Backbone:
């Protein structure tokens, strides 16, 4: 059976970055080999994981399969980034859009 290590962890928020930028930044931090990190670094950014999916779905039943495909691609990209193994290229045009909103409180 798999064991999850208990210990310190750090969760990265997107803070208005595009989905792809947030993924690339998470990956870069996890790839940093300068020091052994005493924590697990993961993501906690629903908006930067879901925005392209929600826009693709647009509330229409006929878009469900396409939206599921987009969500799977973003989830897979972020899973790889959490291990420092994301090579880029999973971003659609929607995933590359900035999520910054002036005046939004993060």
Residues:
């Amino acid at each position: 059976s798999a064991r999850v290590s208990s210990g310190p962890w750090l969760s990265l928020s997107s803070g208005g970055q595009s989905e792809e930028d947030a993924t690339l930044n998470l990956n870069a931090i996890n790839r940093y080999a300068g020091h052994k990190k005493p924590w697990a670094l993961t993501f906690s950014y629903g908006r930067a994981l879901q925005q392209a999916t929600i826009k693709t779905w647009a509330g229409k039943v006929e878009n469900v399969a396409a939206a599921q495909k987009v969500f799977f691609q973003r989830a897979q990209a972020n899973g790889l980034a959490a291990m420092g193994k994301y090579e880029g290229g999973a971003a659609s045009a929607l995933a590359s859009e900035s999520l910054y909103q002036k005046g939004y409180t993060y």
Notes: The CA atoms of residues 16 and 102 lie 10 Å apart. Helices lie at 19-31, 46-57, 64-82. The beta strands are 9-12, 40-43. The chain has a mean pLDDT of 79.
